[in-house]
Amino acid sequence: MKKLILKLTQVAVVFFCFAGSAVFSQQTASINELADVEVPNYHYDYVPDFTFEEVDARIQKMDLEMPFELNDRIFSFIQYFTVRNRDYVKMVLGRKEQYFPMYEETMRKQGMPTEIQYLSIIESGLDPKIKSRVGAMGLWQFMPATGRMYGMQISTAVDDRMDPEKSTEAAAKYLKALYKMFGNWEVALAAYNCGPGNVRKAIRRSGGKKTFWGIYNYLPKETRGYVPQFQAMLYVLNHLEEHNLHLEEPSYPLEYESIQFDRALSFKKLEHFTGICAEDLEKLNPSIKRGLVPEANRSMSIRIPKTKAFFVKENLAWLSDSLGADPVPPITISPLTASLKSEVQNGSRLAYKVKSGDVLGKIASKYGVTLTQLRDWNNLNGNLIKIGQTLVIYTGSQTPSRSSSQTLAQNAGDSPTPKTYTVKPGDSLWIISQKHALSIDQLKRLNNLNSTTIKPGQRLIIG
Q1: Residue 422 CA to its chain's centroid (Å)
Q2: Cα-atom radius of gyration of the chain, to the nearest Å?
Q3: Phi and psi, residue 460, nearest 5°
Q4: Rounded-to-integer distance, Cα 296 and Cα 277, Å
Q5: Which of 210, 172, 218, 162 is nearest to 194 (CA)?
Q6: What is the 3-class SS of the chain, one letter each residue?
Q7: Which residues face 391 on adjacent strands?
Q8: 49 with 244: CB under 8 angstroms?
Q9: Rounded to an integer, what distance in angstroms lies between the CA atom of residue 388 and that of residue 353?
């Protein structure tokens, strides 16, 4: 009997060992099979799937001041923006922070739903200088007649439709007037697109219906897509994570102060006297065409980068006089050869006439001399030079100076170790310029850049 029990025990052990081995082998095989399966890579370009029901559930949870009921038309535009035209969403996402804080403040001040700010994306893609084929202009795409009706100046020299603040204020007032006219925000948006006359006609043809979807079939074709696009963009920009859409290169508004010069001026000339990049001035004052403030607009305020505002205000009287003055007559150094009008080389001595866009450092670099030497030779106390001014430059071995010891000491101070910045992923010249209180143009000059293209790991001189 004991032998029989022992035999059965041995058989059982063998059976369980075999069974365990079989299970382990089966698990190993399953793991190996899984290793061969291609697992989806949820990387940057991944476009998640979604259903109508999922989108509808997300919309129901949104805290909105305007009614928003999902339908097939809106859903098709959501698919378009999140699947087929993701680049457009990324583009407006990069510009959003530049305008939305100002939009939101304006809408709240006017007692309007803040969602209306998303309409500007459909109108212009957040480009303040964009012009439509029919002549509408700016962030809110005003036609000239409507713009003038809301107090915007539109001339060959100044176009307030390109001014972000003035056009937003006008758009808010116009939309508010349309809402009072029709009593429905979606219908007001439709009227903003096709005009109140077309909306009234659609209401009559529909038998007196007063909602957007009630008059939908009687509206112009473009307007039928206009409001659904607005609602789709409102959803998309509030659910970026669910659609794997990420902010790439954000641009932020440049802080500024408004200063009145009370005279005609050019941005190039203002750059010459203050060192403020003309490109920054044009970005801050997009309504001023060709960077020229005409005599007729001499009393208008100019937006100046906040980092330079104190200097400008402290020197306003001198700057105003200089901006209105003719170029300084050239200094006579020696008779110049007629064939060489702007640059004359006579042995080791050169006479250089300052041109538009010149700065002292750029001229020194061009001729391989130091700033101190250039100031010494021309009795300059600072870096200020004027268009038409003639500078003497010594390019040979004989380079006279006030005193050898003084020049050597100053020359040593002209070449400090440059301050550098290593470009990080996601950086742009705009972001770096804001971090270090420089203009894009200054960064490009410091680093001999011909474009705004930079790469992670690249070292830039920032001072």
Answers
A1: 22
A2: 34
A3: -115, 140
A4: 24
A5: 218
A6: CHHHHHHHHHHHHHHHHHHHHHHHHHHHHHHHHHHHCCCCCCCCCCCCCCCHHHHHHHHHHCCCCCCCCCCHHHHHHHHHHHHHCHHHHHHHHHHHHHHHHHHHHHHHHCCCCHHHHHHHHHHHCCCCCCECCCCCECCCCECHHHHHHCCCCECCCEEHHHCHHHHHHHHHHHHHHHHHHHCCHHHHHHHHHHCHHHHHHHHHHCCCCCCHHHHHHHCCHHHHHHHHHHHHHHHHCCCCHHHCCCCCCCCCCCCEEEEECCCCEEHHHHHHHHCCCHHHHHHHCCCEHHHEECHHHCCCEEEEEHHHHHHHHHCHHHHHHHHHCCCCCCCCCCCCCCCCCCEEEECCEEEEECCCCCCHHHHHHHCCCCHHHHHHHCCCCCCCCCCCCEEEEECCCCCCCCCHHHHHHHHHHHCCCCCEEECCCCCCHHHHHHHCCCCHHHHHHHCCCCCCCCCCCCEEECC
A7: 352
A8: no
A9: 6
Q: How many CA atoms lie within 13 A of 261 on its CB side?
A: 26
Query: How far is 432 from 438, CA to CA, in rounded Å?
Result: 8
Q: What is the mean pLDDT of each run of 10 residues along the chain (463 residues)?
A: 44 41 38 39 72 96 93 96 93 91 95 96 94 93 94 92 95 97 96 96 96 96 96 96 83 86 90 88 92 88 91 84 56 33 45 79 76 75 75 61 36 51 75 74 74 76 76
Q: Within a 10 A sphere around the Cβ of 232, how many other Cβ atoms? A: 25
- Displacement of CA 356 from its chain's centroid (Å): 27
Residues belonging to the active site:
123
**C-alpha dihedral sign at 267, 270, 272, 276:** negative
Decide: residue 341, CB within 10 A, 0-12 exposed, 13-18 middle, 19+ buried.
Answer: exposed
Residue ranges and CATH numbers for the domains of the chain are 52-243 (1.10.530.10), 256-324 (no CATH), 343-414 (3.10.350.10), 420-461 (3.10.350.10)
Cβ neighbours, 10 Å, residue 290: 10
**8 Å CB contact between 356 and 344:** no
The residues with which 393 forms a beta bridge, in sequence order, are: 350
Tokens of 161: 């439709």
Q: Cβ distance 113 to 106 under 8 Å?
A: no
pTM given for the model: 0.61
Bridge partners (DSSP) listed for residue 131: 137
Q: Using DSSP bridges, classify how beta strands 343-346 and 301-305 pair: parallel, antiparallel or unpaired.
A: unpaired
Query: What pLDDT sits at residue 122?
Result: 96
55 vs 77: CA distance, rounded Å: 12
Q: Note whether 280 and 305 are within 8 A (CB).
A: yes
